[in-house]
Design goal:
Order of helices and strands: EEEEEHEEHHEEEE
Distance between the termini: 9 Å
Radius of gyration: 15 Å
Structural class: alpha+beta
Largest sheet: 6 strands, antiparallel
Number of helices: 3
Strand order of the largest sheet: 1-11-3-9-7-6
Number of strands: 11
């Protein structure tokens, strides 16, 4: 099996067949990867954080949890997870994110722009990009509801493995936002397993 590498602050898109496994690896630790999923036969059906929270009854998604679509169909099942800490609350970082949170840094197109470019050949337009499942992202929620973006707890070689429950188009990034990745930017690796 081939290990593919996503360069820092970039993104890719690829098909994933029903029953196929996707392993996403954080090779150096403390690096987020935004994941999107679309029904390969009708890309208007996409991953939904709201449906997922509703049906899984948790925001702490890990082994055994499924990621659901906006049409209430399971898209992916988490079958292995060496980190156990991911985010499904926050949207992909974008040019607007950089202007809002990082005015002292150059504006970048972020995960949103990278996903839009990678997914365009599949007929997926920018307005069709929902909230991503942010692999390895650490977003503690305080008792009063306040959110914080903290560095990921992932260590070098940590990974998550997901099984496709339908034919999918996957979007995947090596995240560009400063706070999400502890201030540095590293590659993400992935493997497609039969």
């Amino acid at each position: 099996m081939t290990t593919h590498e996503i360069a820092p602050r970039t993104g890719v898109a690829f098909p994933l067949r029903q029953g196929q496994l996707l392993k996403v690896i954080d090779p150096f630790g403390i690096q987020v990867s935004d994941l999107l999923a679309y029904n390969a036969h009708d890309v208007r059906e996409s991953i939904s954080n709201g449906r997922t929270f509703d049906y899984e009854e948790t925001i702490a998604l890990t082994i055994g949890n499924r990621l659901w679509s906006n049409r209430s169909n399971p898209m992916l099942t988490i079958v292995e997870d060496s980190v156990g800490r991911h985010d499904f609350l926050l949207t992909p970082c974008s040019e607007a994110t950089f202007r809002h949170f990082y005015p002292e840094h150059p504006v970048r197109r972020g995960c949103f722009g990278n996903l839009a470019e990678a997914l365009a050949p599949y007929g997926i337009e920018p307005d069709m990009i929902p909230c991503a499942f942010n692999l390895f992202m650490n977003v503690p929620v305080a008792a009063d509801g306040t959110l914080q973006v903290a560095p990921p707890i992932s260590k070098p070689g940590d990974f998550i493995r997901l099984r496709a429950e339908m034919d999918l188009v996957i979007g995947l990034t090596a995240c560009s936002a400063y706070a999400s990745n502890g201030g540095s930017f590293k590659p993400i690796q992935y493997v497609l397993e039969a």
